[in-house]
Amino acid sequence: MKEHRPRRGSLAFSPRKRAASIIPRVRSWPECDQVRMQGFAGYKAGMTHVLMVDDRKNSPTYGEEIVVPVTVIETPPMKVAAVRVYKKNQYGLYIAGEVWANNLDDFLGRRINIPKRAGDLEKLRQIIDGAVEVRVLTYTQPYLITGVPKKVPDIMEHKIGGNVAEAFEYAASKLGKEIRISEVFSEGAIVDVMAITKGKGFQGPVKRWGVITLNAKHARSSKHRRVGTLGPWNPHHVRWTVPQAGQMGFHQRTEYNKRIIKIGQNGEEIIPKGGFVHYGVIRSDYVMIAGSVPGPVKRLVRIRDAIRPPEVVFDGINLIYVSKQSKQGR
Hints:
Blueprint lengths: L38 E15 L11 E10 L3 E12 L2 E9 L20 H6 L6 E7 L15 E5 L4 H11 L3 E2 L10 E7 L5 E2 L1 H5 L36 E2 L4 E13 L21 E5 L9 E6 L13 E4 L8
Antiparallel strand pairs: 1-2, 1-13, 1-14, 2-12, 3-4, 3-5, 3-7, 5-6, 8-11, 8-13, 9-10, 11-12
């Protein structure tokens, strides 16, 4: 009787290599008519659950009270460090010009070499003819929170929605100032979340790909935790589809169409007894997202407008109760 050996593990995320940076990279931005920043960033605090009225019109539990697991992300205000104008040629987008703020935090100097010359905003305004996008360089302020034990900011780029002229004026007005998450997203919005997953180091094919271990008859030299064969004689090379040992975890992952349940400024209303495990208390703005979010606690999470939103009709968030029960098993 021939044994059945289906392939194990998904090839969709290959190659499974380490992420180049702890800051997730956004490769594309959706179209947006509103003049605002199209993304934000925060630090994952933990999970809890809420009781809310199901407002999905086609749901079998529509109008009933349901329990929803949520992830809490602490989002201290982000500061705008620079304004960039992008133009397009036959090779794609390129930076036509940029202007930096003068009043940057000293902690930012630990991350990058701050330009000595800020640039002229009026000269940049003169070259927006022919521009296709306006983006801002923003950085987080982890020194405003206690759950993340670092002071060095994380710097990243965000696109400004709307037409180019309005986007530039908005970005210029925010240069060197803070932007809160309530200015970017609203409760009930559909967003995408990006983060770097928990790193697990170098692992074998059994844990990394889920292949079954060899039995005693097939294993050689008592080695069971490996694949039975690396492939046929022809072709004369090991194909990339063969499960092999290597890096596991610390990959960038994007989860689409998450819903914002709540945006708040007072962390006392959601902090569980004893604080979030391995994080503590929330002292700044926060956002509550339905479901799970990639990455461990304290990991940087980027939030972006949904690039492929679903055709689901919602009535509106009706939050009844947020669990503040201890997450420490007692």
